[in-house]
Structure formats: C-alpha cells, structure tokens
Design brief:
four-stranded antiparallel sheet; alpha/beta; binds adenosine-5'-triphosphate; ATP hydrolysis activity; globular; five-stranded parallel sheet; about 220 residues
C-alpha cells in the first residue's frame, strides 16, 4: 500500500480569535494512523476540525500550512480536499433508504456499479440485506455504521472523527469503534479523532495531542 499519498502535515498552525491565540499546532499524521486530539471544552478542538475541512468560521484567523500527500491544500476549497467528517449526529436522510443514503456519498462512481458496492459495503459491516430499510428503523449502532459507509464510499483520503461514538452505550461503543478503526487502517486512510474518552484514545493507539486552553497554552 502506498501510504505517502495520504500523509497529512499541519505546519506551524496558529489560530486566533481576535488578537488572542486560541491554539497552535505542528504535527504530521501518517496514512493508517489515528491521531487523537483531546482537551477541555473551549480549547479549540472543533475549530481545528473546521480549519482542516476548510470551513473555519469568519470570527477566527489562521496562519499556517496544510499539506496532504505533499500538496499544499491550505487554500483548496472544502469540496476538493478529500477530507471527510464523521460526527456524533451524522444525520442520515430519513426520506432515503439505507442504500440511498450511502449512494448519496458516492459522487465518484458509475451508477451501474454503485448498487453492488453498496451491498458489499453493507455486508462488510454486518448489515447484509438492509439496503431498502429506512434509517429510523435501525438501531443507533446500525445507523452509525451506515453513516460511516456513506463517508467511506465517497473515498476520502482523510477522515475526521468528532466524538463519533459518544451517543452509543459502552458495549456498542467499543464494537463500533473497532469497526471504524479497522476500516480506516485497512483503507490506509489518515484519521484525526476528537474525543473526551481515554478508552477511545487508547484504542486509536496513535499520537495523542492535548490542546490546552487559550492564549497562554501551547498545544504541542
Ligand atoms: N462561531 C463562533 N463565534 C465566536 N466564538 C466561537 C465560535 N465558535 C467557537 N467559539 C469559541 O472559540 C473557542 C473554541 O471553541 P471550540 O468549539 O473549537 O472548542 P472545543 O474544544 O471544540 O469545545 P467542546 O469540547 O466544548 O466542543 C471557545 O471559546 C468558543 O466559545
């Protein structure tokens, strides 16, 4: 597997709110690695993810460089970055079936092969035969898996996980987490996980960065 093409480099990032420094960060995430970001409420975890997706709120100002696979994507528009976000309320469209939801993310593939790819993907996460089901007829854990497939089949290079397991009870949380991490590693994706949960960080088994709060804090 060529792993260099998915390497993410966050170079000398400084994010300010007004004149105050919110966070600074300089790090590299390799393909197949899951970097964990922790830190107190308000330390800038969501703001960091917004910057990575190219959707920093105008109230913030960023300095620094973002490289993916050796290419500078700091100014690349969001929809061309191949950076996907999976969050705790990864809302599924209730007016679409399970397969309709997953196909929604498959912008790059031919419609003739979509159905087969959806069926194979559902089988790979233990949801064989659920194509026609309505999302609201699924359990929370099943919905989380469908949301994951919708993101994965859009073929991102980087996946950002914003507390994606926090609504699941502990047994389901562990099983869903294993499945998500396995898919990330198998596909050689680069991942950043934001979590408050130490067991998530342990399972990710990569670097852990603690963002410390505001102007006096250094983040790495
Ligand atoms: N749109 C906004 N306008 C003004 N201030 C904002 C905005 N969004 C976030 N902030 C502020 O920026 C700081 C960082 O917020 P952020 O949401 O990134 O923190 P967080 O670490 O993700 O917090 P939590 O763990 O509670 O989700 C906080 O002080 C927050 O109040």
């Amino acid at each position: 597997m060529d792993t260099t093409h998915n390497m993410l480099r966050i170079q000398n990032l400084h994010i300010y709110k007004g004149d105050a420094l919110l966070l600074e960060l300089d790090t590299t995430v390799s393909a197949g690695e899951i970097l964990t970001i922790m830190g107190p409420s308000g330390s800038g975890k969501s703001t960091l993810l917004n910057w990575l997706t190219g959707m920093l709120e105008p109230v913030f100002r960023a300095e620094g460089k973002l490289e993916l696979g050796g290419h500078d994507i700091t100014q690349t528009p969001s929809h061309l970055r191949q950076i996907a976000l999976l969050f705790q309320d990864s809302l599924l469209f209730n007016h679409l079936s399970v397969s309709g939801n997953i196909e929604f993310g498959m912008q790059h593939s031919e419609s003739s092969t979509r159905k087969q790819r959806v069926s194979e993907a559902l089988a790979s996460v233990g949801l064989s035969g659920m194509e026609a089901r309505a999302p609201k007829s699924l359990s929370g854990g099943q919905q989380a898996r469908v949301a994951l497939l919708r993101v994965l089949l859009n073929e991102p290079k980087v996946i950002l996980l914003d507390e994606p397991f926090s609504k699941l009870d502990s047994e389901l949380r562990q099983a869903t987490r294993e499945l998500v991490f396995e898919q990330i590693r198998q596909r050689g994706l680069t991942a950043i996980l934001v979590t408050h949960d130490q067991s998530d960080a342990d399972a990710a088994a990569g670097k852990v960065i603690n963002l410390t709060h505001t102007a006096s804090g250094k983040s790495c």
